[in-house]
Specification:
The strands form 5 sheets. A 7-stranded mixed β-sheet has the order 2-10-9-8-5-3-4. It has a 3-stranded antiparallel β-sheet with strand order 13-14-16, covered by helices on one side. Strands 1-15 form a two-stranded parallel ribbon. Helices cover 33% and strands 17% of the residues. A hairpin with a 2-residue loop joins strand 11 (261-262) and strand 12 (265-266). It is globular. The chain is built from 9 helices and 16 strands. With 368 residues, the chain is an alpha/beta fold. The protein has helices at residues 16-24, 44-61, 75-87, 100-109, 229-234, 244-259, 267-288, 316-325, 350-367, and strands at residues 5-6, 67-72, 92-97, 114-120, 144-147, 149-150, 155-156, 172-175, 192-196, 207-212, 261-262, 265-266, 292-293, 305-310, 328-329, 340-343. Helix 3 crosses helix 4 (100-109). The chain has 2 domains: 17-258, Type I PLP-dependent aspartate aminotransferase-like (Major domain) (Aspartate Aminotransferase, domain 2, 3-Layer(aba) Sandwich); 262-367, Alpha-Beta Complex (Aspartate Aminotransferase, domain 1), CATH 3.90.1150.10. The chain starts with a strand and ends with a helix. The structure holds pyridoxal-5'-phosphate (PLP). Pyridoxal-5'-phosphate is lined by residues 10, 75-77, 101, 147, 151, 175, 177-178, 196, 199.
């Protein structure tokens, strides 16, 4: 069954093998006589699913033992409130504003703490990354927030900032929603990481939080109990009913990730090699083209989300309808920036990116 290539920014394409396995297990999960959707979250079957998912994720991302993995709900936007409620103590927090998502995080945090902008690329219309050495960080900050992949603007931090080396020894909080599991994470530089699952891990409804143990237990009085990281951690993500089916689907994706190899590389390292190859195929085509352009500085272009524009914007609709006929779906850019966006997460094979480039070349020729 050949399916079209799906470039959605999220909820995004999932590996076909994962969907097929879920379909095969839909009515009867491994002889239990139940769908995963019908199981008690406190039962032995779901207990196994949850434990396996966490163990696989820890292995894939090399998460150290002094970090807790929390399976939550609410998405990235809820975390914009949940993080300050847990980590700010109502005091100062520094934000690096690099695009739409970090901007949203900053604005939401102002309801709960003294949110400050340490750096912003707004003067560049979100096309570059301010060098960490220029960030105005305060020693009194409870944490520093960055979005390591700006899904809408197509900007990715190729390296996590080393706050200690910048003379600011406070926890770094990263929103890694849209590139989690696409590359390794240097946990020595991280205090907490969060992300919605629907870009690179599974279906919507699951939010992943990875938080250093020593940061737990300082939630503000007004923090909802179900969103207090310590409560969630103490209850192994089962204080309330977790998003069971989404956790199961993410768990299948983790197993798929573990099976992936690229030469000698395995798992996330294999995905990273593929993601580099996919992104460079697309960007190099765009850069030599007379019709398309991408305006992000080369050193911070996202491997996951590639926004691009037609020099003749009146051709946008023709581009999109032709793409759809060619089996290339959901290429329309975010409404706030316009143009096109190709999201090429882990589940997108290089053949899909090649098909997109072939279509773009064909479309460009017909414009001459
Ligand atoms: C998609 C996304 C979010 C928002 O996630 P929701 O699940 O819609 O709340 C937050 N941050 C980033 C970087 C994202 O890509």
């Amino acid at each position: 069954m050949a399916r079209p290539y799906n470039f959605s920014a999220g909820p995004a394409a999932m590996p076909a093998e994962v969907l097929q396995q879920a379909a095969a297990e839909m009515l009867d999960w491994r002889g239990s006589g139940m769908s995963v959707m019908e199981m008690s979250h406190r039962g032995q079957e779901f207990g196994t699913i949850l434990k396996t998912a966490e163990a696989d994720l820890r292995e894939l991302l090399a998460i150290p033992a002094h970090f807790r993995v929390l399976f939550m709900q609410g998405g990235g936007l809820a975390e914009n409130a949940i993080v300050p409620l847990n980590l700010s103590r109502g005091e100062a927090v520094d934000f690096v504003v690099t695009g739409s998502w970090s901007q949203k995080s900053f604005k939401e945090a102002r309801r709960y703490c003294t949110a400050r902008v340490a750096a912003s690329n707004e003067p560049d219309h979100h096309t570059s990354l301010p060098a960490p050495s220029t960030w105005q960080l305060g020693q009194d900050a409870r944490y520093v927030h960055v979005c390591t992949n700006e899904t809408i603007n197509g900007i990715e931090m190729q390296e996590l900032p080393d706050l200690r080396a910048l003379g600011c020894d406070v926890p770094l909080v990263i929103d890694f929603s849209s590139h989690v599991a696409s590359r390794p994470v240097d946990w020595s530089r991280v205090g907490a990481a969060f992300g919605g699952a629907q870009k690179n891990l599974g279906p919507a409804g699951l939010t992943l939080v990875v938080v250093r143990e020593d940061l737990l237990g300082h939630a503000m009085q007004i923090c909802p109990t179900a969103f207090d990281y310590k409560t969630v951690a103490d209850n192994h993500s089962m204080y309330n009913t977790p998003p069971t089916f989404a956790i199961y689907m993410a768990g299948l994706t983790f197993q798929w990730l573990k099976r992936q190899t690229e030469g000698k590389l395995q798992g996330v390292a294999a995905m990273e090699a593929r993601n580099i190859a996919k992104a460079s195929l697309l960007y190099s085509y765009i850069d030599q083209s007379a019709l398309y352009h991408n305006d992000v500085s080369v050193n911070c272009r996202s491997r996951m989300n590639v926004p691009f524009f037609l020099r003749d914007e009146s051709r946008n609709d023709a581009f999109l309808s032709g793409a759809k006929s060619a089996g290339l779906l959901q290429l329309k850019g975010h409404k706030s920036v316009g143009g096109m966006r190709a999201s090429i997460y882990n589940a997108m094979p290089i053949e899909g990116v090649q098909a997109l480039v072939d279509y773009m070349r064909h479309f460009e020729k017909t414009q001459a």
